[in-house]
Every structure is written in structure tokens, then in C-alpha cells.
């Protein structure tokens, strides 16, 4: 049996009181009917709870009955209105006692269910949803009961090694939105609710990997580590402070529960209630600001953002969703980038907006460019990289991710926050785009000028790297107009390398070193080998004082000269003569 405080009444007292309240049957008919309904519902719920039925069926049946009870109980008038029905002080006290008994029976039913299975805390989450759907319900009373049940559950959970309560993330989202309510009493109860919820979550040992456990001592009191908050962790600290609420929830909930929390807030951005949207947006951004690294459904969130932004979205929704992209990119750049590649090319305005949002996070610019370079290793129409095969096993021969990556570079490279990263990866980007330009010119899409994004990205790369004169020189040589032509490709490769050498480009040392690395490791495709040797024969002699250090690999390359095209042999021979 459940432990009870002195103020609670026993079942025997309830039966005695029923007789006592008979005279109210006609004075307060609605309350009398509500009491009868609650008694019947409780009997049904407990009967199902003690029967040997499928757990899922049991829960669904009990939830349905609880919902019916909820709508009856919390549709009652306020206590003041009930007391006004009485004709004298004695009737007023009887009415108040009847009113409180109805609430206690409903609460006791929840306590009995939770005492046997903490999984049924899910019912509290549903109650919060029902409450928000209809403002006519007694919201304060609902939250009082939710807090009491959570308090009971937190004390019960202290002896458990683990707690099966998958609803904690969703319930935390519901309560966090109420912590900014205009009614102070509701804010207070919501804060206490989050406090008890976090106590339950801490009993699950959710932060073992981080070594930041919150431990329960033998008396059941909680020892909150200083790393959780800068000050003593109490519900009144949480009240109205969105930042500390977000920090506390993000710190305490394990990744799966925090993902549920984030997803719940994310879906609230579609709410027709502008106040709800604003609160959800603020809480969502604050949570991801501190704990985006714990979110696991990154690809799903990014895809949903794309779908939402492609439709009719409000200004606040649009700004929030783009901010979410930025924050997720900060901690999961690879997941975000790969998902942003998973859309048709050319990219539409929505996708370009998302690229800009991803580019706002300068701290991960190197990781973003590394991911794009990994994708650029692929060839449109085929996937040979084992990592890409694992990531994109469902793709057929129409894979266009490398094309999408080239277009993405057109957006990301000019971003000021990427300037340092672009300089760092200049040689890799240069050669990757030259390879992609070759692939583009040898496929059908080469005939469509608007799909030669490798050419556009190459031009952007030169201008972002201080090589505007190289760009202008290539324009005078009519390179940009002919770049997509198949027969022009080898000569075009020679023109790029030759023009870079003529302008003595400052990135020469690292570029030559990277070309040497490519030649030693060996290209994966014949086209790449051709392009690499052409570049080597043109740029390796810019620094005439130190050519010998790079001649070591030349004999190795000449062993395969017979496998190269006649044009390449000409360029290679010219390079040796120099």
C-alpha cells in the first residue's frame, strides 16, 4: 500500500463521507456525478492493472480511461465557485471536502499505477498535452498532481539501478514551456515538476560516460555536483530562468531523452499559438547552444527543417530553424553536411539558405570542408569510396552528391568565417575541383551549363584565395567558356596549371607538396593521374632554386608514361626538358 500523509483520507473515510454528502446530491449534482464517475473509473483501471493482459493493451486501456477521468475532473468549476453553491458554512465545508476528495481519488489512481510501473509516467505527459489543448481545464490543479506524482516517483526511483521512463524527455519539454507562464503559481509548479523529473533522470545514471553522476545517498537526498549548476540546485533557481532550465535538462537527460525533448520543442514551432512558438523557439535554441552534441536525430531534424522551410513558414519559425542548422553543424558537421547533400541538384533557394546557416559556424569550417572533400572523391554516377558506400548504400548510378558538393562550395567558400579554412585546404580543393570538372565534362550533364558547378566553385576558390589575376587571365584565355567541353579538358587543365605558375601563386609550396603526395599514393582513377602529372610538370619548376627535392618521384612516374594519353606525354616531356 502507498504511504500517505496525515491529510489524506482512507477508503473507509471516503465511504463514510459518501453517506455524509448524500444531502448534496441535489445541491451539487455535477460534483456528485463526477464522484461516481471517478469511483467507477478507478475500479476499472485497478482491475485492468491486476489482470494478466498484454502490457501495451493494458496501458492503452488505462490511458483511455484516465483521459475520460481527466476531462471530467478538471472540467469542474473552481473551488470558490463550488463553495458559493452552499447555503451555509457547513455545506460549504462539505462541498470543499467533496471537491478535494474527487481530486485525491484521481491522484491516488495515478500513484497506484506509477508505484507498480514507472513507465506509466507517460500518463503525466499526456495530461500536460490535454491541459495545453484546452485552457478551460484547471491548469494549476493539473500541475499540482503532476508534481506530486513525480515527487513520489523520484523517491521510489532512488533505489533503482535504472528507470524505464522513456517519456521523461517529452514531459520535460511540456513542463519547460510552462516555466515562463504568466501565472506565477503555474510557473512554480512547473519548476518543481522539472526538479523532480531531473531527480528521476539522475537515478538512471545517465552521465556515466562524462563522469558527472548525481548520486542518491541512503536517506534519499540528492547530492548535486557543482558541475550541474554554478549555484545550489533548487526549483526556485529554475523558475523563469530559461538558460538554467536548458542547461539543467541538457546536462541531466541522456541522449535519447534529450533528443525527445528537442524534437518535442522543434515540432511546437508549427503551433498556431504564437506565444507557444516563441517559447519553444527560445528553449530549443538555448538547449542546442549548450548540448547539441547529445542530440542523435540530426539527419531527421535537418530533413524536417528542409520540408518545413519549403512550405509556408512564419518569420520566427524560419529564423529558429536556420539557427538550429547552425547549432547542429557546430557539433555534428558530418551528419548535417551529408544530409544537405541528399537533395536534388541544382539546389533550390531553401537549400541554399540552409547552406548559409551551416556556414555561420566558423569553428567547424575545417570539418565541413573535410567532409565535402570526402564527397568530392566520388564520381557522379558511381560510388567507389567505402565510407560513402556505407553512408549511401541505397544510391544507384544516378548519385549526384559530388555535384551537390561542388555547388555547396560556391556558397561556403566566399563566407568570411571560412577564409582561414579555405587557405588551409587550398591544394585539396583545387585538385578535387579539377577532378570534378573532368568528370562533369565527360558526362551528359556537361552539356547543361548550369550544372558545371565544379567550374563555378573553382572560380570562386581562386577569387577567395587572392588569385583574382589568375581568374582574369583564364578569362582572357577563354578557359571558363570552354571548360565544360570534353575535347578541351586536357588543354584546359594545362591552362590552369600554367596560369598559376605564371602568376607565381603564393600557395605554391603546399600545392606542390600535395601533388607529390598524390603521386606517391597513386590516383584511384586514370583521369586523376593525368591531371596530377599535368599539374606537376607545370608548377614544380616555379621555385628554380629547389627543384631537386621534387625530382625524386619523376622516374617513378615515367615508368607509367606509356599508359598515358599522347597529349599527356607531350606535357610530361616538356616538363622534363625544363
Automatic annotation (TrEMBL):
Pfam families: HEAT_Maestro (PF21047). It comes from the Eukaryota. InterPro entries: ARM-type_fold, Maestro-like_HEAT, Maestro_heat-like_prot. Coiled coil: none annotated. Residues 139-369 form the Maestro-like HEAT-repeats domain. Signal peptide: none annotated. GO terms for cellular component: cytoplasm. This is Maestro heat like repeat family member 9. It comes from Myotis lucifugus. The gene is MROH9.
